[in-house]
């Protein structure tokens, strides 16, 4: 997030913003400005370095997105072995491949029953 910039650095910041994200018109009313959303930590650190060199003040935030926030609010099945709800789809390739579930606690593979 771009939180501030010095007055004389606006042209350099605009140029950097055009390189790393969509073209943005800088205004103090729009602060803080989210420059990169949904990116890796490495790309965010590189963007931070470029923006700071151009005269901006930058805040880097690492935010974890839950399944509910991402729009995947489907309930996961309970592990039949240990009863844990920490399960995930376990996909494998091949002809006739079927989706299994895997327990993150005990490692048990099982087929979801609906």
Describe this structure in words.
By secondary structure, the protein is an alpha+beta fold. The protein folds into 2 domains: 2-58, Ribosomal Protein L30, Chain: A, CATH 3.30.1390; 74-114. It has 2 helices and 5 strands. The protein has helices at 10-20, 41-53; strands at residues 2-5, 56-58, 87-90, 100-103, 109-110. The strands form 2 sheets. A 3-stranded antiparallel sheet has the order 3-4-5, with no helix packed on it. It has a two-stranded antiparallel sheet with strand order 1-2. β4 and β5 (109-110) form a beta hairpin. The radius of gyration is 22 Å and the shape is elongated. The relative contact order is 0.15. The mean pLDDT is 79.
What are the defining features of this structure?
single chain, 5 strands, Ribosomal Protein L30, Chain: A, 2 helices, two-stranded antiparallel sheet, 114 residues, 2 domains, alpha+beta
Q: Which residues sit in consecutive blocks of at least 5 with pLDDT less than 50?
A: none
Succession of helices and strands: EHHEEEE
Which CATH architecture of the largest domain is right?
2-Layer Sandwich
Structural class: alpha+beta
Tally the helices: 2
Order of strands across the main sheet? 3-4-5
Computed CA radius of gyration, to the nearest angstrom: 22 Å
Helix and strand arrangement:
Layout: E1 2-5, H1 10-20, H2 41-53, E2 56-58, E3 87-90, E4 100-103, E5 109-110
Antiparallel strand pairs: 1-2, 3-4, 4-5
């Amino acid at each position: 997030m771009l939180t501030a910039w010095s007055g004389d650095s606006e042209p350099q910041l605009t140029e950097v913003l055009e390189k790393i994200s969509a073209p943005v018109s800088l205004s103090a009313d729009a602060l803080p400005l989210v420059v990169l959303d949904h990116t890796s930590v490495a790309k965010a650190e590189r963007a931070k370095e470029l923006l700071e060199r151009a005269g901006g003040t930058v805040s880097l935030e690492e935010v974890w997105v839950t399944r509910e926030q991402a729009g995947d609010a489907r309930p996961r099945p309970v592990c039949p072995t240990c009863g844990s709800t920490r399960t995930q789809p376990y996909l494998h390739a091949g002809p006739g491949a079927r989706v299994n579930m895997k327990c993150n606690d005990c490692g048990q593979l099982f087929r979801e029953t609906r």
